[in-house]
Amino acid sequence: MLEQDIKRILYTNEQIVAEAKRLGQQLTADYEAKTPLLVGVLKGAVPFMAELIKHIDTHVELDFMVVSSYHGGVSSSGEVKIIKDVDTTIEGRHVIFVEDIIDTGRTLKYLRDMFEYRKAASIKIVTLIDKPEARVIDIQADYVGCQVPNEFLVGFGLDYDEKYRNLPYIGVLKEDVYNK
Ligand code: IMP
Ligand code: MG
Question: Is 21 buried (19+), middle (13-18) or exposed (0-12) by CB count in 10 A?
């Protein structure tokens, strides 16, 4: 049903799970005995974070933020708004931001600056998808699942107008879906 709106599948569920496993194993090695705080950026990070934490074999804590930068369209508005903040005190914590995608880099730059101000002990970024060509701010993720070309993607958390987040894979939407 939903697959009829997809032009091309870029990453299958099996490929995504394999990347999550690889990143989870790296985080296990890098954060042993540090009890990092994983901060998921809602809503897009939910499927990736759920998969990733299954592969982390050391203690972690979870928290979430709601941030908005896209407003229903397919290109970034440039504006970042905090809609829901974390509940955890950040001072002294090893923070790992979990993102579905880094596009322009504005969202993560804003969040990283804010958590530096809050005196996190360390701040790292893990993202399922990196779109380096779309970057307007110089920020790199420390742990990257897949690098993709500058195309608008949906699935595994990524949305078009809040839809398609539930696809188990990542794909490119057909153009006629935008024009409906
Ligand atoms: P940035 O601040 O431009 O890096 O954008 C980050 C946010 O933009 C992500 O968390 C997504 O919600 C959204 N975004 C960027 N590229 C895409 C895409 O290809 N498909 C769906 N959402 C996207
Ligand atoms: Mg979005």
Answer: middle
